[in-house]
């Protein structure tokens, strides 16, 4: 805002509104789905203001330094780099999370996994401090969100990527929950081995579930920029589900549960894997707010 105030009376300087209009036209020309939103977010980022403030300030001039900065960010977006990677942050569960190309960008749909976990905790937690493991934690969005909502819980976040875990640690510190979290490097449950003396009350995961042959067909923002390791679920997209579902009983407490985010049209297959395993009961498929199957919740115990 200070930079704007210094040039507010300069009628020869281009206006914010004009810069936005031109940016929207350029983003639209390359097929960006949300050109207006993206342009506003990037320009607001340059000016260190909110989108609402930017819209109010539309008639104010923009100086050359800010215009140059905006152009550099816009050039990145024109290469289909996701806005979250450009700004370095993504909102999830009403919190801002640091993100880099080392981690998958948290999606609003994944908030449903957090809701399911909190619902299970309220119903089965019995007021005790829960032990929760989040596999494939990435940015830590799910694990940190659970820690903010469950102030007595101990959260264990695992990921095979040390770089991802570093991002998760920084997010936990930013939201002041790091003291109740552990970050462990390893492939799924390997990070938690050997089998704990006290099992986990809940294991959650949003694992890679894109079918390998489908990765190239995804939006360029995903296929070109997001970490393949966080996307690739194997030939049928189910590789990680098979491993997690089979191994989880060795790490869950007697009355523990497993909550998994699932990909499109995977509900019946993931539920069948749970049923075939023979260690789960009350296998539930939960929809998101668009009516799509989003989470499979399986309670440990013989049916």
Task: Kindly describe this structure.
Helix content is 39%, strand content 18%. It is an alpha/beta fold and 303 residues long. The protein folds into two domains: 2-79, Ubiquitin-associated (UBA) domain (Helicase, Ruva Protein, domain 3, Orthogonal Bundle); 92-300, Vaccinia Virus protein VP39 (Rossmann fold). A hairpin with a 2-residue loop joins strand 1 and strand 2. Helix 2 runs parallel beside helix 5 (64-78) and helix 11 (239-247) runs parallel beside helix 12. The longest helix has 15 residues, at 64-78. The radius of gyration is 22 Å and the shape is elongated. The N and C termini lie far apart (62 Å). The relative contact order is 0.10. The model is unreliable at 3-8 (pLDDT under 50).
Number of helices: 12
CATH class of the largest domain: Alpha Beta
Tally of structural domains: 2
Low-confidence stretches: 3-8
Could you state the order of secondary-structure elements as H and E?
HHHHHHEEHEHEHEEHHEHEE
Q: Give the overall shape, derived from the CA principal axes.
A: elongated
Distance, first to last CA: 62 Å
